[in-house]
Amino acid sequence: ALVVPGGAVPPARFEHTAVWDSLNGRMLIFGGEPGPLNDLWSFDGTNWRLHGKGGKEVYKITRKELRRIK
After folding, report:
1. What are 21-68's pLDDT values in tens digits?
2. What is the distance of C-alpha 61 from the center of its chain?
3. 17 C-beta neighbours (distance < 10 Å), count
4. What is the pTM of this model?
5. Is residue 68 within 8 Å of 61, Cβ to Cβ?
6. Would you list the DSSP string of 17-63?
7. From CA 64, how far away is CA 48, in angstroms rounded?
């Protein structure tokens, strides 16, 4: 079946990092080019969610999210 995400979607990118968060059933993507992009998004199979953009805010959120994944 075709999945059509709801809400805002992240801009197209390459050279980003993507990981599967098995505890929360979602994919996390961070950063990439062109830019560089410095944002953190999640996708739960239906909706995208922006967790933060840029600098210390994204760093803190990313560290928090990664601790929850371990």
Report:
1. 888 899 989 888 998 888 889 999 889 999 887 766 566 665 666 666
2. 11
3. 11
4. 0.73
5. no
6. EEEEETTTTEEEEEEEBTTTEEEEEEE-SSBEEEEEESHHHHHHHHH
7. 18
